[in-house]
Write a structure and sequence with these properties.
Keywords: Hydrolase. This protein is an alpha/beta fold. The protein has one domain (8-253): 3-Layer(aba) Sandwich (Rossmann fold), CATH 3.40.50. 43% of the residues lie in helices and 16% in strands. A seven-stranded mixed β-sheet has the order 1-3-2-4-5-6-7, with helices on both faces. The longest helix has 15 residues, at 65-79. The chain is globular and about 40 Å long.
Length: 254
């Protein structure tokens, strides 16, 4: 698959190059709190909008993880990066693994922030209806965000995430990506992959927390390690940006 150079912007000029992929509910602006804590002398970070999100809102596509991976590699080509790490939040973590499979000689390491595994995230019955209906129902998005952050945030915080999600994503893309990140399974292709992997999860994330990592990523990547942020749920870039920045920079620096 041939990718497109999608809208992106770069933070920092340090030696640790990393391409950053956002989650299902956020475009690249969802990393703004994290960027405030990243040391530009340590790393160079390229933040990308997936098709149907942010400044790529009107970019047509198949809206699959394979397409996200190809587009991200096209951005790396545009930057002239021959090798780099990939930071993927939630669904971005699944796309990062496809990048590793497509270009193993280029991907130095993966940092997964509450990342979806290569096996996807099966959803059945009422839960599937909740997620599938979130494309058109802001109330569904709110319920999902509230649940995956442990029900710890007030109305204003939840409303801000929902409003951004609705205004900065295409309902068509949002719905299509769900099928790709939740229902496709390529975990046999990544089994025993030697790439260095850092998994950063929130203690208050009931969906993609430490138990989910132990059942998936940590079984398949022999050089993976897990770090749990005690004050975060599923949205560490916004909930605990300083702690996440410290974990990222320590890993890239090593």
């Amino acid at each position: 698959m041939t990718g497109q150079v999608l809208p992106y912007d770069v933070h920092g000029e340090g030696p640790g190059r990393a391409l950053v992929l956002h989650n299902w509910f956020g475009d690249r602006t969802s990393f703004a709190p994290l960027r405030a804590h990243l040391d530009g002398a340590v790393g160079t970070y390229a933040f990308v909008d997936c098709r149907g999100y942010g400044e790529a809102l009107d970019h047509a596509g198949a809206y699959t993880m394979e397409e996200v991976a190809a587009d991200a590699l096209a951005v790396a080509d545009d930057l002239g990066w021959d090798s780099f790490s990939v930071i993927g939040h939630s669904m971005g973590g699944k796309a990062a693994q496809l990048m590793l499979l497509d270009a193993p000689e280029r991907i130095r390491s993966i940092i997964g922030v509450s990342p979806v595994s290569a096996a996807g995230f099966p959803l059945d019955g009422e839960t599937w209806e909740l997620f599938a209906g979130a494309a058109d129902e802001p109330a569904n998005r709110r319920a999902i965000i509230d649940n995956t952050t442990g029900g710890r945030y007030d109305d204003a915080w939840l409303s801000a995430l929902v409003d951004r999600s609705v205004t900065r994503s295409s309902a068509t893309a949002f719905r299509a990506y769900l099928d790709s990140w939740s229902r496709t399974d390529f975990h046999e292709r990544v089994r025993d992959n030697p790439a260095p992997v850092l998994l950063v999860v929130g203690a208050h994330d009931p969906a993609l927390g430490s138990e989910a990592m132990e059942a998936t990523w940590l079984r398949w990547y022999p050089n993976a390690r897990l770090e749990v942020l005690k004050d975060a749920g599923h949205y560490a870039p916004e909930e605990t940006p300083q702690a996440l920045a410290e974990a990222i920079e320590a890993f890239l620096g090593a």
